[in-house]
Design goal:
Largest sheet: none
Number of helices: 5
Number of strands: 0
Structural class: mainly alpha
Length: about 130
């Protein structure tokens, strides 16, 4: 099965640097969806006239979506996790692993001493029982 992505990399949503009117969001979305940027802009304006929602979405995307050509995050973030994975240590629980994966500490052998038993006292008669006996 062949990958639909060029050179094995998935497509990223990025704001356009070259084809921008305001922030490059519509052109970036159009590039991501393989559409004409003008069509995406017209649809955005029409939806804004009827609902107003695209204004909020546009502002969120303007803040969240990286600009075209921005550096990407490394494949293994944080880099420490990769070094710890090579050493066989868990980044959360440490080298000994999760508590339920750890071996319980060795129990010390119990001392064998005879158990001391105390005689159980006889129950005292209650006032009601004493009244019957008298």
């Amino acid at each position: 099965m062949t990958s639909p992505y060029p050179a094995g990399q998935p497509k990223r949503l990025e704001r356009s640097k070259s084809n921008r009117v305001l922030g490059g969001v519509c052109a970036g979305v159009a590039n991501y969806l393989n559409m004409d940027p003008t069509l995406v802009r017209v649809l955005t304006v029409l939806l804004t006239l009827f609902t107003g929602v695209p204004v909020v979405v546009y502002l969120v995307l303007l803040l969240v979506v990286p600009e075209e050509g921005a550096p990407t995050a490394p494949a293994s973030y944080p880099p420490v996790a990769q070094a710890e994975a090579q050493q066989g240590s868990d980044p959360v629980w440490g080298s000994s692993g999760a508590p339920w994966e750890q071996q319980p500490p060795a129990a010390e052998p119990a001392q064998t001493q005879p158990a001391q038993t105390q005689p159980t006292p006889e129950p005292k008669p209650t006032d009601h029982e004493q009244g019957r006996q008298a």
